[in-house]
Here is the input.
Amino acid sequence: MATLIERIANLTKTIAKPAPPFSSKILLFSHSFTHRSLSSTSAKTDVLAGTATDVADTSAEGDLVYSDLPVSTTVKPLLPNILQPRVVIYDGVCHLCHRGVKWVIKADKYRKIKFCCLQSKAAEPYLRVCGVDQEDVLRRFVFIEGLGVYHQASTAALRVLSYLPLPYSAMSAFMIIPTPLRDAVYDYVAKRRYDWFGKSGDCLVLQENELLERFIDREEMMDRYQSNS
Here is the structure.
């Protein structure tokens, strides 16, 4: 019996491992914290050291579409030069065009569409990206839908309508009409718009500042308005 009790005691006996001294714990924690900090710093450095194209690509799901800036070590300078999607470039001195813009702003309750006067400097990088000049846009306005995707004339108008809420978006169904027929009507009106509806000496949006919040060139327009005042 004594032998059995001794064997059971040997099986259940545990040997406690000595705890590391307090100083060792501090060293272990310090090493772990330093390692995590260096990893986090390295990750941030990798993000900040990206190129303008990298920033545009990672933001493709939002409003950032394209930037033609060179390599930069910070993200902040890129922001003012990034082109936005869903931008209408139109003849800002045309009364008919201005009425159309006002109508879209009123109908676009989700504020999906942005605008830019052709006569502003802010329009220039958008024209370069699309490969068109001012004369092209004076004949047919441009809708930049996204990176590498833009439309002109009747197709541009119907694509803008497709972003509006119902019932306005339903009018984009006219896309089934062949483009040559649609553009023939568009060109007929566009050539006569000044005679029929009039033309202003400067961008008409300057007369209605409450609309400027929807314009990507609003700062330039405000500066021009203050200069003319």
The radius of gyration is 31 Å.
